[in-house]
């Protein structure tokens, strides 16, 4: 089918453009795809019958891009390809007509045919397919006609002066970006300098083969990516390279989502050196750190490193403000968490909103092996890369009695040859055999002290008892190993909390310690650093360590096939043994699972030979709490509709729950209906006057504060009650309001302790207690164990508040834990959770005007509570993973500020701070530098923002009749410096002062309008399934400024001095876009836009876009026109060029 696109005669097409068209049309078909369906009827010969779009008389600013391809999700694997026969490649080409306003061409009649034999009426019907997924008619059209289901409508546009931009309508069910839009070089698109910086900071010489292969795939396409490898395969490095590429090449921010606060802080430390080398920023979003929305950054690109919950808040705030386009890439580590309880529902909600966003960022997700990775990739609309690579060999053993059996992973599934006898191990003496019947100490001593060993225990109490058991049965000679380092570690632990745990005191000399949540954060960090540096050789820990910070070991021992009273799963088992033999630390790794004879059957069947664990959506669990949170977000942000039917469709097609609904016999409509009813009962949503769903003020506050939906009403009522008699003479009242609801029940109140703490309260504090409902009568009944009228939850919550109050007054963690009957870790966890919840309550009250007073009080109190220390330590506690203990050590060593740490060197830091490994010192200095630079950048950008508020210059007014034409900006008189624009006929005079203040005033009054004026040189209006988008390109031809605006929002900005031509790549929805800037041969420029490799339309630079004009009242009457040409810096008066001279 031929298409004649007529060009208006006054439009100009450059030689370069014509050459590009010829090259494109003569090149091989870029839209050939592999179709594995034997029923596909479009063959190479049939595709060749379709004539290419004619190049003759191309008059419109657009070109035919109707053959955008439909592409299936690709799956990549490093395993050898199958040798089975595959269907030959088929070219799928769809050709259609344009409707042009000038020549009255219209679409072909409904009975006309396109390639594959499908009629246009059939095509039109497929174009109305819901964009959430393919319905049966679309599938039928694709199978019977080989179509792409894509059409375009184009209206003419010759210039930008007051005319509507061209409209390009793209209707496609599942169009994916072109894979050829980004050129990938030897360094995966990065410069040699950036690449060397990565290798040096990571301490590596190159990449593994699978990493190179995965990066090649990721950099040749802009699709989402999901890749899966065993633990210790090097997954994180690939994601970090992709983020750096996004920062440096695409000039977009990145969001790195991690599961735990400890991992967030570790990642900030490890990336800080790279941030300094490559000049980007890092911002922490964990606990109470991070601001919503993130501060706009113009000078530097940023990696936001966040926990799941904080990442949710970032995306919500950016979506609400229309700033999501600032994020170019979202990386999610441990994506399998989507199948784990409440946090899994939070993660699925986050991913769903990113998928539904009109201009959403690219997503890269990684995980260990997942059983149903195809379902997860369909949910994420991602390509898959899988590999069974492990850089260090791992040997698995099973110990039952004295026998050690080796597991042959190659025989997994064949029970007969699955395990073979390796050797026998028993205690060296009768005493040891009695104390240690499992021979655990023997397994540890085989590798200690030269190599490290992790012993995973089922409970916290078991960790402590096993640490004592192992240390008491190890050879006494181990006490001579690294004696000086152990003494420094002991001294550092004592300085942290004022005393040393008796168990650690007895085990540390042997290089043994325990590690669980009962330790304070500083204690855990000191022990982790000692283990990593080799000071400690054995760590007895709970299973949470396997999912936390990176602590590699030569040998891993699983003390029991249980976690608490729950049987170990295959996924958790793989996670634990994955700590053995980490690359860069050991040449090989070993794991031992200790089982009793009666446990052997279930261990073999349910752990060792079990299939890989599958991931299941958690949205419908826990009384639909996760689903309600998702629906509330979608309604508030208008992402998935505002009625029952549309929300049910969104749930079906855009969530993992929807992907799994048929197999789990779930009806999405029923789930949505039930959830909406529950939210209405909670006063979170309502029907507006148009019968559409809308979010109430309480619902919006709940979203902003990331508050549990079931707690939002309770929080509101508590705030209302407190507002009537808020006591500010003490911090106790505010402390009660921010005591986390979900911590109630974690510490059981001790009646005598409660009574003692109550009696120590001051008069003001007693007033707060009575207002809450805890009075003397309650205390008497509590001591006598009588029934109470007050709710038990209030009583327990106030008990936690008293613990916070003691900490706030300076009591040590040790004293509070002993007094209130809990562990040190519980006390510190309460403090950090309270600070985090205070931040949530602050954002909650900001949405409710009636709580304006709380808004002013909670922000500083949240920070005060999180530090809970003397003021001089607060700056040092901004460093990642530095709590009060280490901050105190730094302060005593003479480091008082972040700048002090930033400007020192690692040797000085190691020498002056007890037990600080050099690697940690280097990371700490780098993190301090990043924070100092970030503060400086923030101040500079805040100053620039303030200067932008300076009023624009006043209109030019007549000043004197001495000259023919004279005008001035309104400035204070009597300054010695003048700028004159003069010739024999006229003079334009501008006064400004010599002082820096008035110089700045002059720049922002007069020059900034010249520099900041939006010089829109090209504009396109595009309609795609995600919505209607106005694309505008601003080009400063003198400054090199390039700004891309989408729907009035700044999407991309670059300041490339002296670079006028080139291209910019960006994405709208699922479409890969490219904007080219080329010379037109007449000292002007041509601007063209292409989508998925096909040209849309072009604009020629209009001369007046290079000019700025003023109309000035003349002293002789009438108006004079002064014109300033920005490229040549020439000045014209009433059409006559005048000489310019600076005096």
TrEMBL record:
SUPFAM superfamilies: P-loop containing nucleoside triphosphate hydrolases, Sec63 N-terminal domain-like
Gene Ontology process terms (BP): double-strand break repair; negative regulation of apoptotic process
Domain Helicase ATP-binding: 216-388
Bias (Basic and acidic residues): 42-51
Biased segments, Polar residues type: 1-16, 74-86, 103-120
Source species, domain of life: Eukaryota
GO CC field: nucleus
Localization in the cell: Nucleus
Major subcellular site: nucleus
MF annotations from Gene Ontology: ATP binding; helicase activity; hydrolase activity; nucleic acid binding
Region of interest: Disordered: 1-120, 417-436
Pfam family, any one: Helicase_C
Domain Helicase C-terminal: 439-635
Keywords: ATP-binding, DNA damage, DNA repair, Helicase, Hydrolase, Nucleotide-binding, Nucleus
Protein name (Swiss-Prot/TrEMBL): Fas apoptotic inhibitory molecule 1
The organism of origin for this protein: Daphnia magna
Organism lineage: Eukaryota, Metazoa, Ecdysozoa, Arthropoda, Crustacea
């Amino acid at each position: 089918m031929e298409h004649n696109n007529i060009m208006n005669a006054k439009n100009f097409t450059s030689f370069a453009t014509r050459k590009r068209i010829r090259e494109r049309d003569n090149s091989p078909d870029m839209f050939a795809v592999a179709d594995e369906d034997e029923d596909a009827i479009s063959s190479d010969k049939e595709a060749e019958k379709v004539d290419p779009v004619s190049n003759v008389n191309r008059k419109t600013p657009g070109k035919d891009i109707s053959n955008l391809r439909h592409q299936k999700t690709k799956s990549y694997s490093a395993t050898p390809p199958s040798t089975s026969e595959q269907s030959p490649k088929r070219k799928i080409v769809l050709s259609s007509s344009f409707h042009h306003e000038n020549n009255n061409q219209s679409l072909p009649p409904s009975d006309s045919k396109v390639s594959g034999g499908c009629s246009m009426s059939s095509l039109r019907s497929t174009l109305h397919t819901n964009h959430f997924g393919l319905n049966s008619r679309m599938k039928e059209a694709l199978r019977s006609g080989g179509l792409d289901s894509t059409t375009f409508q184009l209206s003419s546009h010759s210039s930008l002066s007051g005319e509507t931009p061209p409209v390009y309508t793209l209707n496609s069910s599942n169009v994916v970006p072109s894979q050829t839009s980004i050129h990938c070089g030897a360094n995966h698109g990065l410069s040699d300098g950036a690449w060397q910086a990565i290798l040096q900071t990571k301490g590596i010489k190159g990449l593994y083969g699978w990493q190179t292969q995965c990066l090649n795939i990721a950099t040749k396409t802009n699709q989402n990516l999901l890749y899966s490898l065993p633990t210790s395969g090097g997954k994180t490095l690939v994601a970090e390279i992709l983020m750096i590429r996004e920062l440096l090449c695409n000039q977009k921010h990145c969001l790195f989502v991690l599961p735990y606060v400890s991992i967030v802080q570790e990642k900030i430390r490890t990336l800080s050196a790279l941030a300094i080398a490559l000049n980007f920023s890092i911002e922490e979003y964990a606990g109470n750190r991070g601001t919503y929305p993130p501060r706009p950054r113009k000078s530097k690109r940023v990696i936001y490193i966040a926990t799941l919950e904080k990442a949710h808040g970032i995306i919500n705030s950016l979506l609400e403000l229309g700033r999501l386009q600032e994020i170019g890439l979202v990386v999610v580590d441990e994506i399998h968490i989507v199948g784990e309880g409440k946090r899994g529902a939070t993660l699925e909600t986050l991913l769903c909103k990113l998928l539904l966003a009109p201009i959403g960022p690219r997503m890269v997700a990684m995980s260990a092996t997942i059983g149903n990775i195809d379902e997860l990739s369909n949910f994420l609309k991602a390509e898959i890369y899988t590999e069974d690579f492990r850089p260090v060999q791992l040997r698995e053993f099973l110990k039952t009695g004295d026998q050690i059996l080796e597991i042959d992973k190659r025989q997994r599934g064949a029970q007969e040859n699955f395990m073979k006898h390796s050797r026998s191990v028993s205690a060296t003496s009768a005493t040891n055999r009695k104390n240690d019947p499992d021979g655990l100490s023997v397994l540890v001593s085989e590798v200690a002290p030269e190599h490290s060993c992790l012993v995973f225990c089922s409970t916290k109490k078991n960790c402590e008892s096993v640490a004592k058991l192992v240390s008491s049965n190890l050879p006494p000679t181990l006490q001579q190993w690294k004696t000086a380092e152990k003494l420094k570690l002991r001294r550092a632990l004592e300085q942290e909390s004022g005393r040393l745990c008796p168990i650690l005191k007895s085990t540390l000399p042997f290089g043994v310690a325990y590690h669980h949540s009962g330790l304070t954060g500083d204690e855990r960090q000191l022990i982790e650093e000692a283990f990593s540096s080799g000071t400690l050789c054995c760590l007895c820990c709970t299973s949470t360590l396997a999912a936390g910070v990176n602590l590699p070991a030569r040998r891993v021992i699983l003390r029991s096939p249980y976690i608490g009273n729950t049987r170990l799963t295959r996924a958790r088992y793989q996670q634990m043994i994955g700590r053995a033999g980490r690359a860069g630390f050991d040449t090989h790794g070993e794991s031992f699972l200790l089982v009793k004879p009666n446990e052997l059957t279930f261990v073999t069947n349910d752990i060792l030979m079990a299939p890989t664990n599958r991931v299941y959506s958690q949205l419908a669990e826990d009384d639909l709490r996760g689903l309600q949170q998702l629906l509330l977000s979608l309604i508030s942000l208008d992402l998935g509709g505002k009625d029952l039917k549309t929300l049910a469709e969104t749930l079906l097609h855009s969530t993992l729950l929807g992907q799994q609904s048929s197999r789990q016999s779930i009806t999405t409509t029923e789930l949505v209906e039930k959830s909406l009813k529950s939210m209405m009962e909670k006063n979170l949503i309502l029907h507006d006057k148009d019968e559409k769903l809308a979010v109430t003020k309480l619902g919006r506050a709940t979203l902003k504060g990331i508050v549990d939906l079931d707690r939002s009403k309770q929080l509101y009522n508590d705030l209302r009650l407190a507002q009537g008699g808020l006591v500010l003479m003490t911090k106790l009242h505010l402390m009660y309001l921010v005591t986390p609801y979900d911590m109630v029940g974690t510490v059981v109140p001790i009646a005598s302790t409660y009574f003692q703490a109550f009696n120590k309260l001051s008069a003001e504090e007693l007033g707060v207690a009575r207002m809450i409902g805890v009075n003397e009568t309650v205390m008497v009944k509590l001591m006598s164990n009588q029934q109470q009228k007050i709710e038990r939850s209030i009583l327990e919550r106030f008990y936690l508040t008293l613990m916070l109050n003691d900490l706030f007054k300076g009591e040590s963690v040790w004293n509070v834990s002993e007094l209130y009957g809990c562990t040190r870790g519980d006390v510190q966890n309460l403090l950090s959770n309270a600070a985090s919840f205070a931040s949530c309550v602050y954002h909650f009250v900001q949405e409710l005007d009636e709580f304006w007073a709380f808004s002013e009080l909670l922000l500083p109190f949240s920070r005060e509570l999180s530090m809970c220390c003397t003021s001089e330590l607060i700056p040092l506690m901004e460093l990642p993973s530095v709590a009060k203990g280490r901050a105190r050590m730094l302060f005593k060593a003479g480091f008082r500020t972040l700048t002090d740490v930033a400007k020192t060197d690692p040797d000085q830091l190691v020498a002056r701070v007890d037990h600080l490994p050099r690697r940690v010192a280097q990371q700490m200095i780098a993190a301090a530098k990043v924070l100092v630079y970030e503060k400086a950048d923030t101040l500079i950008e805040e100053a620039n923002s303030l200067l932008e508020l300076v009023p624009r210059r006043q209109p030019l007014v007549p000043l004197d009749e001495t000259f023919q034409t004279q005008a001035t900006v309104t400035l204070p008189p009597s300054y010695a410096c003048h700028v004159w624009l003069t010739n024999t006929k006229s003079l334009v005079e501008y006064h400004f002062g010599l002082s820096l203040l008035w110089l700045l005033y002059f720049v922002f009054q007069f020059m900034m309008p010249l520099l900041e004026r939006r010089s829109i040189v090209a504009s396109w209006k595009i309609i795609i399934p995600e919505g209607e988008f106005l694309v505008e390109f601003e080009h400063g031809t003198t400054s090199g400024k390039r700004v891309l605006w989408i729907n009035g929002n700044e999407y991309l900005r670059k300041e490339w001095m002296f670079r006028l031509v080139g291209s910019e790549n960006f994405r709208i929805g699922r479409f890969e876009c490219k904007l080219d800037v080329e010379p037109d041969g007449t000292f002007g420029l041509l601007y063209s836009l292409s989508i998925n490799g096909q040209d849309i339309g072009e604009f020629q630079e209009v001369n007046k876009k290079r000019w700025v004009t003023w109309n000035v009242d003349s002293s002789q009457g009438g108006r004079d026109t002064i014109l300033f040409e920005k490229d040549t810096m020439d000045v014209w008066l009433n059409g006559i060029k005048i000489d310019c001279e600076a005096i």
